[in-house]
Specification:
Ester_Hydrolysis_Enzymes; SGNH_hydro; alpha/beta; 5-stranded parallel β-sheet; Arylesterase
């Protein structure tokens, strides 16, 4: 069996849902149906920032040999307004550490956008932050030649029927769409058709 590590925050963990409803678990079901020799490990931690991920990375890397590493961190950085430079440095550190320890591993980066239009709330400074925040993911993907999921929450963000009551975390139906968004990029890496 080959190992796929999903390394993220509450969006990966499936916050507020049974573990089977998280998008990594949904992708495991897809892998089993084909069948493909991959085991998906969900290392999503609710509330985690890129700095938190950087701190716990070595423990995760020591746990399993890694064949595929899906990096989906940064949402909490954006919500807290952490400087884009810091988020970028932390994510680059994670990419470099995975490549150093598992040079043959495939890596996928999931992009994020700010969850709402910040302009009316704080004028140009916050709107500028939102623009920079969105751009950092594609910049990192291009710099490191990584397969890139442009927006993890595509089709889910802002749709009440696809989110929990908090309006932030995807419900079970929303997690299925996240799984599809990731599979569009991950599937071809595993030599599979892209339909989920």
């Amino acid at each position: 069996m080959k190992n796929i590590i999903f390394f993220g925050d509450s969006l990966t963990a499936g916050h507020g849902l049974p573990a089977a409803n998280s998008f990594p678990s949904i992708l495991q079901q897809r892998l089993d149906e084909h069948p493909l020799p991959y085991k998906a490990y969900n290392y999503g931690v609710s509330g985690e920032t890129s700095a938190g991920g950087r701190q716990r990375l070595s423990a995760v890397l020591a746990r399993h040999p890694i064949d595929v590493f899906v990096l989906a961190l940064g949402a909490n950085d954006g919500i807290r307004g952490i400087p884009v430079r810091e988020t970028t440095q932390n994510l680059q550190f994670i990419i470099d550490a995975v490549r150093r320890q598992y040079p043959q591993a495939q890596m996928v980066l999931a992009g994020l956008e700010f969850p709402f239009d910040l302009g009316p709330l704080g004028g140009h400074r916050l709107a500028h932050y939102a623009t920079e925040f969105k751009a950092l993911f594609r910049t990192l993907a291009d710099k490191n030649s990584l397969p890139f999921v442009p927006f993890l929450l595509q089709g889910v963000l802002g749709r009440r029927e696809l989110n929990l009551a908090d309006g932030v975390h995807p419900n079970a139906a929303g997690q299925r769409i996240l799984a599809e968004n990731v599979w569009q990029v991950l599937g071809p890496l595993l030599q599979q058709p892209v339909s989920l």
